[in-house]
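Hello,

Our lab assistant flagged a job as stuck in the queue for most of the afternoon. It eventually completed. Since we weren't sure the result was trustworthy after the delay, we are filing this so someone can double-check. Below is the sequence as submitted and the structure that was eventually returned. Let us know if re-running is recommended.
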Amino acid sequence: MDATPTGSRYVLDAGSRRQLQQRLDLLKQGDVITLGATNIVGRGPTPTVAEASPDVTVGPDQVWTLTLVSGLGLYVVLSQDCDIVRATESEPCLLVCPLEALPEQEWTALRHGPYSPREFPCPPTESLGLPHGTAPVANLRFVTSLDKAALLSDAFTHTPALRSAAVRERFGTWLGRRAARAAHPDAREQDVLAAAGERVRSLAKQAVKKAGAGLSPSQMLVLAAEEWFLGPGEQLVPFQLILTPSSAAAAGLWDDNASAFKDAQINTAALALAADLSKRATPGLGYVVTVEVHTLDRVPASQYRTWSEWTWDHDSAWSADS
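-- returned structure --
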């Protein structure tokens, strides 16, 4: 890199600045790049340092720093579009997180089940070169800063991973939800939502195994889910499920001849799923679980504003297909 010192700072020469700006102009939030790392600071012999450096002995009061490189060598850009192109004097770094390859069943559970606050299912694309049977997931557990000047490296490449405006919007909302997700009452979470989330993700994974053949009504509805919300309530737990024509068609819930949703099947599936999730709630506490199906163009704003995104905080429990 050609740079000249100015006191304690370094300034890129004019040619390098132009080249860097050209590369920054190509980037959007959610793109995948080939530069990055994860930096972790810790103290003492924790599981993190033991797993990363099993041959290193760490004292009980020793403060350590680890730099870990993604196994795939791929990272997702988290910075907002305006901050990506902003001059390095005000925004010297990009925020990035590792991209991981998860089995397709787990990717489907993330995509069609309740939101994860830690993992985002990116649209699969062959250009990423992931192992067969896997799909890309952004892991927000580990976020680090990447100096923009690193993009001048010959090792830099990028893939526009989030091609549609709808997916980019969902990704930006997901990033904000990490710190600002709605907090549900502990009792509601423990007695209803935890088991419901596990069941919905299990249904999604089962649907992938069946490859679209012989799906139950509940599996079809889960596979058609674009978004999940929760309506207000204490004893009443109203799940609000959003479909689109394309998501319904992919799950067999769209009538091509009539260009309409298969309403009768959808209603049957919603009742079946509500009954299934009701069985998962702690018995004897009076909870009533409902599943309501919508398209966003038909939901009044006054109703939509009372909903909160359904975020499931139990990602470590990838359940068996129960």
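-- support follow-up --
The delay was a queue issue, not a problem with the job. The result is valid. The first strand starts at residue 3 and ends at 6. Residues 4-8, 316-322 have pLDDT under 50 and may be disordered.
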